[in-house]
Amino acid sequence: MVNDGNIRPDGPRTLGSAEEREARAGRIRAAHIQPLTALVQAIRSETGLGVPNFDPADGGVGARLLFLLEAPGKKAVGSGFVSRNNPDETAKNFFELNHAAGIPRQDTVIWNIVPWYLGSGTKIRPARVSDIAAASPYLARLLAELPKLEIVVLVGRKAQKAKDEVSKLLPLVRVVTMPHPSPLYVNRLKGNRAQILSRLEEIAQLLFPS
CA quadruple 181, 179, 203, 170: dihedral positive or negative? Predict the structure, then answer.
Protein backbone atom coordinates (compact mmCIF):
# COMPACT_ATOMS: atom_id res chain seq x y z
CA MET A 1 0.00 0.00 0.00
CA VAL A 2 1.19 3.52 -0.72
CA ASN A 3 2.39 5.04 2.53
CA ASP A 4 1.39 8.69 2.72
CA GLY A 5 1.61 8.82 6.50
CA ASN A 6 -2.07 8.07 7.14
CA ILE A 7 -2.30 4.36 6.44
CA ARG A 8 -4.60 2.43 8.75
CA PRO A 9 -4.76 -1.35 9.21
CA ASP A 10 -5.89 -2.93 5.95
CA GLY A 11 -8.64 -5.52 5.72
CA PRO A 12 -11.96 -6.48 4.14
CA ARG A 13 -14.99 -4.20 4.61
CA THR A 14 -13.06 -1.39 6.32
CA LEU A 15 -14.90 1.22 4.22
CA GLY A 16 -18.02 0.28 6.13
CA SER A 17 -16.60 2.66 8.75
CA ALA A 18 -17.49 6.35 8.39
CA GLU A 19 -14.18 7.21 10.00
CA GLU A 20 -12.27 5.24 7.38
CA ARG A 21 -14.28 6.75 4.52
CA GLU A 22 -13.45 10.20 5.85
CA ALA A 23 -9.77 9.29 6.17
CA ARG A 24 -9.63 8.04 2.56
CA ALA A 25 -11.46 11.12 1.31
CA GLY A 26 -8.76 13.22 2.94
CA ARG A 27 -6.12 11.46 0.83
CA ILE A 28 -7.59 11.71 -2.68
CA ARG A 29 -5.25 14.59 -3.53
CA ALA A 30 -2.08 12.74 -2.53
CA ALA A 31 0.52 12.92 -5.31
CA HIS A 32 0.09 9.31 -6.49
CA ILE A 33 -3.69 9.61 -6.84
CA GLN A 34 -4.25 13.28 -7.75
CA PRO A 35 -4.26 12.79 -11.56
CA LEU A 36 -6.86 10.04 -11.19
CA THR A 37 -8.96 12.18 -8.85
CA ALA A 38 -8.84 14.91 -11.49
CA LEU A 39 -10.08 12.41 -14.07
CA VAL A 40 -13.01 11.45 -11.83
CA GLN A 41 -13.91 15.10 -11.38
CA ALA A 42 -13.75 15.65 -15.14
CA ILE A 43 -16.08 12.70 -15.80
CA ARG A 44 -18.54 14.00 -13.23
CA SER A 45 -18.44 17.48 -14.77
CA GLU A 46 -18.81 16.26 -18.35
CA THR A 47 -21.52 13.65 -17.76
CA GLY A 48 -23.38 14.88 -14.69
CA LEU A 49 -23.17 11.35 -13.32
CA GLY A 50 -21.98 10.07 -9.96
CA VAL A 51 -18.55 8.46 -10.26
CA PRO A 52 -16.78 6.97 -7.22
CA ASN A 53 -13.16 7.90 -6.58
CA PHE A 54 -10.09 5.76 -7.09
CA ASP A 55 -8.87 4.32 -3.80
CA PRO A 56 -5.81 6.21 -2.50
CA ALA A 57 -4.78 3.05 -0.64
CA ASP A 58 -3.91 1.56 -4.05
CA GLY A 59 -0.98 2.43 -6.30
CA GLY A 60 -2.52 5.25 -8.32
CA VAL A 61 -0.43 6.44 -11.25
CA GLY A 62 2.44 4.22 -10.12
CA ALA A 63 0.42 1.04 -10.67
CA ARG A 64 1.88 -1.74 -12.78
CA LEU A 65 -1.41 -3.64 -12.92
CA LEU A 66 -4.92 -2.37 -13.67
CA PHE A 67 -7.98 -4.41 -12.71
CA LEU A 68 -10.94 -3.41 -14.91
CA LEU A 69 -14.40 -4.51 -13.78
CA GLU A 70 -17.81 -3.73 -15.30
CA ALA A 71 -19.35 -0.83 -13.36
CA PRO A 72 -19.39 0.39 -9.74
CA GLY A 73 -21.89 -1.29 -7.46
CA LYS A 74 -24.13 0.23 -4.85
CA LYS A 75 -21.54 -0.12 -2.09
CA ALA A 76 -18.94 1.75 -4.16
CA VAL A 77 -21.44 4.55 -4.64
CA GLY A 78 -22.11 4.53 -0.90
CA SER A 79 -18.47 4.59 0.17
CA GLY A 80 -17.40 6.93 -2.62
CA PHE A 81 -14.57 4.59 -3.70
CA VAL A 82 -13.90 1.79 -6.14
CA SER A 83 -12.17 -0.37 -3.57
CA ARG A 84 -11.40 -3.86 -2.35
CA ASN A 85 -12.27 -2.52 1.12
CA ASN A 86 -15.93 -1.84 0.34
CA PRO A 87 -18.43 -3.54 2.68
CA ASP A 88 -19.74 -6.20 0.30
CA GLU A 89 -18.94 -9.81 -0.51
CA THR A 90 -17.45 -9.14 -3.95
CA ALA A 91 -14.93 -6.68 -2.51
CA LYS A 92 -14.18 -9.05 0.38
CA ASN A 93 -13.49 -11.91 -2.04
CA PHE A 94 -11.31 -9.66 -4.18
CA PHE A 95 -9.31 -8.47 -1.15
CA GLU A 96 -8.76 -11.97 0.21
CA LEU A 97 -7.88 -13.53 -3.15
CA ASN A 98 -5.37 -10.81 -4.06
CA HIS A 99 -3.80 -11.13 -0.63
CA ALA A 100 -3.58 -14.92 -0.96
CA ALA A 101 -2.02 -14.57 -4.42
CA GLY A 102 0.64 -12.22 -3.09
CA ILE A 103 -0.17 -9.25 -5.33
CA PRO A 104 0.83 -6.05 -3.46
CA ARG A 105 -1.93 -3.50 -3.72
CA GLN A 106 0.56 -0.65 -4.18
CA ASP A 107 1.26 -2.19 -7.60
CA THR A 108 -2.42 -2.12 -8.57
CA VAL A 109 -5.28 0.19 -9.37
CA ILE A 110 -8.96 -0.79 -9.75
CA TRP A 111 -11.49 0.75 -12.13
CA ASN A 112 -14.51 -0.07 -14.30
CA ILE A 113 -15.08 -0.01 -18.04
CA VAL A 114 -18.20 2.03 -17.21
CA PRO A 115 -17.17 4.35 -14.36
CA TRP A 116 -20.65 5.44 -13.28
CA TYR A 117 -23.44 3.56 -11.50
CA LEU A 118 -25.91 1.79 -13.77
CA GLY A 119 -29.52 1.36 -12.78
CA SER A 120 -31.81 2.64 -10.08
CA GLY A 121 -31.00 3.23 -6.44
CA THR A 122 -32.14 -0.29 -5.59
CA LYS A 123 -30.99 -2.43 -8.51
CA ILE A 124 -27.99 -2.29 -10.82
CA ARG A 125 -28.42 -3.34 -14.44
CA PRO A 126 -25.82 -4.90 -16.73
CA ALA A 127 -23.71 -2.64 -18.89
CA ARG A 128 -25.05 -2.26 -22.42
CA VAL A 129 -23.06 -1.78 -25.58
CA SER A 130 -24.17 1.88 -25.51
CA ASP A 131 -22.84 2.29 -21.94
CA ILE A 132 -19.45 0.87 -22.89
CA ALA A 133 -19.28 3.09 -25.98
CA ALA A 134 -20.14 6.20 -23.94
CA ALA A 135 -17.45 5.36 -21.41
CA SER A 136 -14.78 4.48 -23.97
CA PRO A 137 -13.15 7.95 -24.15
CA TYR A 138 -12.69 7.93 -20.37
CA LEU A 139 -11.03 4.53 -20.46
CA ALA A 140 -8.55 5.93 -22.97
CA ARG A 141 -7.90 8.92 -20.71
CA LEU A 142 -7.32 6.61 -17.73
CA LEU A 143 -4.83 4.45 -19.60
CA ALA A 144 -2.90 7.58 -20.59
CA GLU A 145 -2.47 8.38 -16.86
CA LEU A 146 -0.80 5.04 -16.04
CA PRO A 147 2.73 5.22 -17.49
CA LYS A 148 4.08 2.22 -15.53
CA LEU A 149 1.30 -0.14 -16.55
CA GLU A 150 2.42 -3.65 -17.54
CA ILE A 151 -0.76 -5.71 -17.22
CA VAL A 152 -4.48 -5.04 -17.62
CA VAL A 153 -6.77 -7.64 -16.05
CA LEU A 154 -10.34 -7.69 -17.40
CA VAL A 155 -12.51 -9.01 -14.59
CA GLY A 156 -15.70 -10.76 -15.67
CA ARG A 157 -17.40 -11.22 -19.04
CA LYS A 158 -18.71 -7.67 -19.41
CA ALA A 159 -15.31 -6.10 -18.83
CA GLN A 160 -13.79 -8.57 -21.27
CA LYS A 161 -15.75 -6.88 -24.07
CA ALA A 162 -13.15 -4.10 -23.85
CA LYS A 163 -10.24 -6.42 -24.66
CA ASP A 164 -9.77 -5.33 -28.27
CA GLU A 165 -10.01 -1.67 -27.33
CA VAL A 166 -7.47 -1.94 -24.51
CA SER A 167 -5.08 -3.95 -26.69
CA LYS A 168 -5.32 -1.30 -29.40
CA LEU A 169 -4.69 1.55 -26.97
CA LEU A 170 -1.83 -0.25 -25.22
CA PRO A 171 -0.20 -2.61 -27.72
CA LEU A 172 2.84 -3.17 -25.49
CA VAL A 173 0.81 -4.01 -22.37
CA ARG A 174 -0.30 -7.56 -21.61
CA VAL A 175 -4.10 -7.92 -21.44
CA VAL A 176 -5.44 -10.94 -19.53
CA THR A 177 -8.79 -12.06 -18.15
CA MET A 178 -10.15 -13.55 -14.95
CA PRO A 179 -13.57 -14.51 -13.58
CA HIS A 180 -15.53 -12.01 -11.53
CA PRO A 181 -15.13 -12.53 -7.74
CA SER A 182 -18.84 -12.00 -7.01
CA PRO A 183 -20.45 -14.46 -4.59
CA LEU A 184 -22.74 -15.48 -7.47
CA TYR A 185 -19.70 -16.94 -9.21
CA VAL A 186 -17.48 -17.84 -6.26
CA ASN A 187 -20.21 -19.80 -4.47
CA ARG A 188 -21.74 -21.42 -7.57
CA LEU A 189 -19.32 -24.33 -7.73
CA LYS A 190 -16.87 -25.64 -5.14
CA GLY A 191 -13.80 -25.06 -7.30
CA ASN A 192 -14.56 -21.54 -8.49
CA ARG A 193 -12.77 -19.71 -5.70
CA ALA A 194 -9.68 -21.83 -6.26
CA GLN A 195 -9.91 -21.11 -9.98
CA ILE A 196 -9.78 -17.35 -9.38
CA LEU A 197 -6.91 -17.74 -6.93
CA SER A 198 -4.96 -19.80 -9.47
CA ARG A 199 -5.50 -17.11 -12.09
CA LEU A 200 -4.31 -14.39 -9.72
CA GLU A 201 -1.24 -16.44 -8.86
CA GLU A 202 -0.46 -16.63 -12.58
CA ILE A 203 -0.84 -12.85 -12.80
CA ALA A 204 1.46 -12.40 -9.78
CA GLN A 205 4.04 -14.51 -11.59
CA LEU A 206 3.80 -12.18 -14.60
CA LEU A 207 4.47 -9.22 -12.31
CA PHE A 208 7.26 -10.92 -10.39
CA PRO A 209 8.81 -13.62 -12.58
CA SER A 210 11.06 -15.97 -10.65
Answer: negative
Domains in the chain: boundaries = 14-207
| pLDDT tens string 150-169 | 999 999 999 999 999 999 99
pLDDT exceeds 80 at position 171: yes
pTM equals 0.94
Tell me how far apart the alpha carbons of residues 151 and 65 are, in angstroms, rounded to a whole number: 5
| CATH classification code of 14-207 | 3.40.470.10
Give Cα 70 to chain centroid, integer Å.
9
